[in-house]
Design a protein that fits this description.
With 251 residues, the protein is of the alpha/beta class. 47% of the residues lie in helices and 16% in strands. It comes from Streptomyces marokkonensis.
């Protein structure tokens, strides 16, 4: 269960090598979180992440999880919940893709959509059902401001995040009153391995800043968190621009 300050004692990370997820895990372990499950494809990176969190004092276990293998999600996540209640599920997996390349290779675009949306729908529903069965818990979904309005530069990724965002909001409405809390996190450009080599966008942020916003959101039981907060106003303005004007912007 969460402590008096809203900090989860147990955490399941879907996408166990995500820089944002690991920054969040480190922050929560430094507070009160003691049990961490890292779900992801077996790799030295996953093992290294587990060892890092163990070094901070957490009990850490890993579980094999692949966003694209949706038929395995119930068994993989069921194994985790069978070991005890989970206070927080952090859905953090996703791929950026390569817009120019993926436009020429539709199967690559499909992979982006299947990972970011289809895989998340599957894992989100399995997790939500388990949280509802135990009667408490939070599901935090890492969305993106890219989902607020499709841009020429990344509409494949952006459309997948738009679908994920809408799904997570609807899931939150469906679970309202059940004891399960859903929080959608919308970061802007995050300086990370995923964005290495890309031109940095205005109001860029870091995995650590997103982790801080997630902790604050959990304490407040927020439903939507923007990182940084100023993006809420910026994206509201961009979302309502006439399409002819929006097309002329260098975005």
């Amino acid at each position: 269960m969460k402590d008096a300050f809203g900090i989860p004692q147990s955490l399941l990370v879907l996408g166990g090598t995500s820089e944002i997820a690991l920054a969040t895990a480190r922050r929560l372990v430094a507070r009160r979180t003691r049990t961490v499950w890292l779900a992801g494809r077996p790799s030295p990176a996953l093992d290294g992440a587990a060892e890092q969190l163990r070094g901070l004092g957490a009990e850490v276990r890993t579980v094999v999880f692949d966003a694209l293998e949706t038929e395995s999600h119930e068994a993989a996540l069921g194994k985790v919940f069978a070991e005890g209640d989970i206070d927080l599920v952090l859905l953090a997996f996703g791929v950026l893709g390569d817009q120019a390349h993926d436009e020429r290779e539709p199967l690559n675009a499909v992979r982006v959509a299947q990972t970011n949306y289809t895989g998340a729908v599957s894992a989100g529903l399995v997790s939500a059902r388990a949280l509802q069965a135990q009667g408490h818990g939070s599901l935090v979904v890492l969305s993106s401001v890219a989902g607020e309005r499709a841009r020429r530069a990344n509409f494949i990724y952006g459309s997948s995040k738009a679908g994920l965002d809408a799904f997570a909001q609807g899931l939150g409405d469906a679970l309202h009153g059940t004891g399960v809390h859903v929080m959608v996190v919308r970061p802007g450009f995050v300086r990370s391995r995923m964005t290495a080599g890309l031109e940095e966008a205005p109001l860029a942020t870091t995995p650590e800043a997103v982790a801080t916003a997630i902790e604050v959101g959990l304490r407040r039981r927020s439903e939507t968190v923007w990182v940084p907060g100023a993006l809420r106003v910026v994206m509201s303005a961009l979302r309502h621009l006439p399409r002819a004007v929006f097309r002329r912007l260098p975005v």
